[in-house]
Design brief:
208 residues; alpha/beta; 6 helices
């Protein structure tokens, strides 16, 4: 049975990717305070994706609907799945989140230039089956290799503003593509969601 998909993320890139593969969905943003218990990037993204999905699931379950604009009873959690995701960049085992300011962005790019690093995206799918809530959580890892960048090139890129809302201070699909030597793994995972794996998992669970 196809279920109504709720994306628990405000990321425009994740919205674009889900739309690209032909899935219909609504967006409900998680407002929970994120807490991590691990320092391993793979476990961190799985934890955070699960927290986002669970927070949105609880929000919808309490309201009794899957769309704040709908009237109570129109759609129940039986008809719904919640998709949570979180992406981090890791270099030498250190997790790089979104830069706090331009100096932090420049420092991250200086660390990444001329070498390889890893991008991890954790995904959690929450759904109900036979009256029981089910959860599937997994992660994908992609290795990204940068060409060397000069200080002037780093400053030029930071000045575009593109790095400021992105983990690791760069977006592979934008201006920074000029500095990407190559990748090992799923390109879409670096953008923010491994949609191929997501679709295959949903299809395998008969949710789409």
């Amino acid at each position: 049975m196809n279920k109504k998909i709720i994306l628990a993320s405000a990321s425009p890139r994740r919205r674009e990717l889900l739309t690209q593969i032909g899935l219909d969905f609504d967006v409900v943003v998680s407002e929970t305070e994120e807490k991590i218990t691990s320092t391993e990037p793979a476990k961190v993204v799985e934890e955070l994706s699960a927290q986002k999905a669970e927070a949105v699931w609880e929000k919808l379950a309490v309201s009794g609907v899957c769309d704040p604009e709908q009237k109570s009873g129109e759609t129940t959690m039986t008809d719904t799945l919640v998709l949570g995701a979180d992406t981090v960049v890791a270099c030498d085992g250190k997790i790089l989140g979104k830069p706090a300011d331009t100096e932090a962005a420049a420092a991250m790019l200086t660390m990444l230039q001329g070498r390889g690093h890893e991008v991890y995206t954790g995904v959690t799918i929450l759904y109900e089956e036979n009256g029981e809530r089910k959860m599937l959580t997994f992660h994908e890892k992609t290795t990204v290799h940068f060409y060397p960048m000069t200080d002037a090139q780093i400053r030029e890129y930071v000045a575009t503003g593109d790095p400021m809302d992105k983990a690791g201070a760069y977006g592979i699909q934008g201006f920074c593509a000029r500095y990407i030597r190559g990748i090992e793994g799923d390109y879409n995972n670096v953008v923010g969601l491994p949609v191929g794996r997501v679709y295959q998992e949903l299809h395998g669970l008969r949710l789409v």
